Amino acid sequence: MELRSIIERIQKYLREVRAELRKVTWPNRKQLGSYTAVVLVTVLVVAGFVGLIDFAFSQILRLFIK
Known about the structure:
Layout: H1 3-23, H2 29-65
């Protein structure tokens, strides 16, 4: 492949990316805050659940090992 065609393809790609980003509906500050809170709460709940399951399995394994 020729260097010129590679550069033209990269430029075309970047123009298309820019055009697509203009179509995006970006959240406002209030929405961003609420979305962030939802993500953080979800992560904490899932982490707690996984931690409890891990603890339960480790206790069960300790009973079998003894």
